[in-house]
Design goal:
Elements: H1 4-7, H2 9-23, H3 31-44, E1 51-55, H4 61-69, E2 72-77, H5 80-93, E3 98-102, E4 116-120, H6 129-132, E5 139-143, H7 146-149, H8 151-160
Parallel strand pairs: 1-2, 1-4, 2-3, 4-5
Length: 169
């Protein structure tokens, strides 16, 4: 049942959290670091049009960014409502080279169909991180969000108990 919280994430986030997820990374107070993180991830990936598996993609913003770069992307998340949001984000971007699947990345049936797998700010949800990172025939790029893992962000979260988004005005 540990993963039930991930499945229910968007429902628990409420309207403000959903708006944040829908506009991410631009609605996030850590937008700059999030985009910088993606710059680093891109430097580890093979050149487009490589096939990328985006594991734990949430609202799909990373999948959409990779798709805009020219990659063929399959985004995966355990939460059906996040995948529905990701599909809306893909449609808004007009991308045919990005698709999404619902599933637990620790039990996906993919074998060698991808050139790289990306875990951006999602590997910490794995029960067995080592087995989750097995990327047969490709590269595995695990990365944590700098804005979430920084001491300043952790201190802010402890002091204010506020989420990492700002309301849209």
């Amino acid at each position: 049942m540990a993963k039930q919280g991930e499945i229910e994430y968007l429902a628990r986030a409420g309207a403000e959290g959903t708006t944040h997820a829908e506009g991410k990374p631009f609605t996030d107070t850590g937008c700059g670091p999030l985009l910088a993180d993606m710059s680093g991830i891109l430097s580890f990936l093979p050149p487009p049009p490589a096939r990328i598996l985006d594991l734990g993609c949430g609202s799909g913003w990373t999948s959409v960014l990779l798709g805009r770069r020219g990659y063929e992307v399959v985004g995966q998340d355990i939460a059906p409502d996040l995948i529905a949001l990701a599909q809306r984000n893909r449609e808004a971007a007009g991308l045919a080279n990005v698709s999404f699947v619902v599933g637990d990345y620790e039990g996906l049936a993919f074998a060698d169909e991808f050139d790289a797998a990306v875990f951006y700010d999602s590997l910490h949800h794995a029960v067995e991180p080592q087995s989750a990172m097995a990327a047969p025939g490709g590269r595995c790029v695990p990365a944590a969000s700098w804005s979430r893992s920084s001491p300043a962000m952790a201190t802010r979260a402890r002091r204010t108990r506020s989420p990492p988004w700002r309301p849209l005005a």
